[in-house]
Amino acid sequence: MTSPRGEVRAAAAGPAGVRMGASAAEADRTLFVGNLDTKVTEELLFELFHQMTGLDIEKDQIIEMACLITDSDLNILAKGPNLIIKQPDELLDSMSEWCKEHHGKSGLTKAVKESTITLQQAEYEFLSFVRQQTPPGLCPLAGNSVHADKKFLDKYMPQFMKHLHYRIIDVSTVKELCRRWYPEDYEFAQKKTASHRALDDISESIKELQFYRNSIFKRKTEEKKRKIIENGENEKTAS
């Protein structure tokens, strides 16, 4: 697909995007999101989820896609498009029984049949959004089992993916580590509602990651600081 509106660098958008007098290096890593007076740097996350007709990269397709941009504290800075993508009835009819049941129950199958948005139009919308909000190569893709999303996006939305960072942040990895290392805490983790709609899934992923950050990572950081202080006091006593 032709790149929409050329190569637009959001960080170098002028007075609305970067403060006057900023250095070139700072301009590359600093912007103001939309109308928010929020300065964002290298800590942005691109939270994304999409629904597919299945997991076979050779024959299945994306049917719904939504995204949010957060800062490193998981505060939502910008809400992106939430699009349902038109796919042929033959593809929908060939979905697995699991997909037929859950996409039918959620209303997604019906919405896909009624949609007029093509895959190319969807890529244009998402690429335009992320270019307006982030400089190239800044945001890693984040979400639950996001490696699966990345496979489909690399194939079906390559221009969009080129704008993102090559790394991913997979919340499911954190989940599995928490389940193994901190099973007592894992019992209180965010549980999925199984709505199987893109925007709902993103919101749940953010809440889940917030839980791990607040109950696991923060606690361990505080323990480390306490041990450093204790070790320092012990060294003073010994001397």
TrEMBL record:
SMART domains membership: EXOIII (SM00479)
Molecular function terms, GO-annotated: 3'-5'-RNA exonuclease activity; nucleic acid binding
Keyword DNA-binding appears in the UniProt entry: no
Pfam families (alphabetical): RNase_T
Keywords assigned by UniProt, alphabetized: Exonuclease, Hydrolase, Nuclease
Record-stated family: Belongs to the oligoribonuclease family.
Quaternary structure annotation from Swiss-Prot or TrEMBL: Homodimer. Homotetramer.
Task of the protein: 3'-to-5'exoribonuclease that preferentially degrades DNA and RNA oligonucleotides composed of only two nucleotides. Binds and degrades longer oligonucleotides with a lower affinity. Plays dual roles in mitochondria, scavenging nanoRNAs (small RNA oligonucleotides of <5 nucleotides) that are produced by the degradosome and clearing short RNAs that are generated by RNA processing. Essential for correct initiation of mitochondrial transcription, degrading mitochondrial RNA dinucleotides to prevent RNA-primed transcription at non-canonical sites in the mitochondrial genome.
Protein name: Oligoribonuclease, mitochondrial
Originating organism: Ornithorhynchus anatinus
